[in-house]
Amino acid sequence: MAGKSKKIFVVALGLGIGLSLCGALPVVAQSIEEKTQVCAGCHGENGKPVDKTIPVIWGQQQGYLYIQLRDFKRNDRKNEIMQPIVSAMERQDMMDIAEYFSRKPWPDLGQPRASKDVSERALTANRSVGCTGCHLDHFQGDGTVPRLAGQSKEYLAKTTADFRTRARGNNPGMSDLMIATVPDDLAALSEYLSGL
């Protein structure tokens, strides 16, 4: 009986911790470090995501991070992992988390620079699409516009594909731009941006 009781306790404890991390139970975390600990599970302890299709959030623009959290909470941007996490967050929680991650140093993912041919195609596509009109000259972003330089190639490719199919619906203008851009140009942009 002791073995069965121990198993039930471990399952109950794990369920309680998991539910509290997802906002289903009151969260005991008080400091910003405690509140953001759950983020490391996917976005990485050192700012390097555990899966390359997950974005770097360390050093990302504060306004952009806040808007993404808000959009996940509103269900304007869909993700089965993020929505339960942000569902119990208040506006100030999201603002604090966005500020916390924006102050972290951008991690070096060690991605190679794009070849000359890919770079030229990406820069030609940029002149056509006008990426730097919002993301600025070095693709660093500003305010509510995200940094793209140094983001993972896989995340950039997934995001452009999601905008093209409108699976990511929280920025219709980006969807229109991605739909109007040739897929090979988008692939070149993803490779080029990841190596900056």
Question: What would your notes on this structure say?
Answer:
This protein is an all-alpha fold and 196 residues long. It folds into two domains: 31-107, Cytochrome Bc1 Complex, Chain D, domain 2; 116-194, Cytochrome c-like domain (Cytochrome Bc1 Complex, Chain D, domain 2). Helices cover 57% and strands 0% of the residues. The chain has helices at residues 2-21, 32-36, 40-43, 62-74, 82-86, 91-102, 116-129, 132-135, 153-165, 172-180, 183-194. α7 (116-129) crosses α11. The longest helix is centred in the N-terminal third of the chain and has 20 residues, at 2-21. The protein starts with a helix and ends with a helix.
The DSSP helix count reads 11
Largest sheet: none
Uncertain regions spanning at least 5 consecutive residues: 3-27
Strand content: under 5%
The CATH homologous superfamily of the largest domain is termed Cytochrome c-like domain
Helix content: 55-70%
| Structural domain count | 2
Structural class: mainly alpha
- So, CATH architecture of the largest domain? Orthogonal Bundle
First and last CA, distance: 59 Å
Mean pLDDT: 88
Brief rundown of the structure:
This protein has 196 residues and is mostly helical.
Describe this protein with a few key phrases.
single chain, 196 residues, mainly alpha, Cytochrome Bc1 Complex, Chain D, domain 2, 11 helices, globular
Strand and helix layout:
Blueprint (H helix, E strand, L loop, with lengths): L1 H20 L10 H5 L3 H4 L18 H13 L7 H5 L4 H12 L13 H14 L2 H4 L17 H13 L6 H9 L2 H12 L2
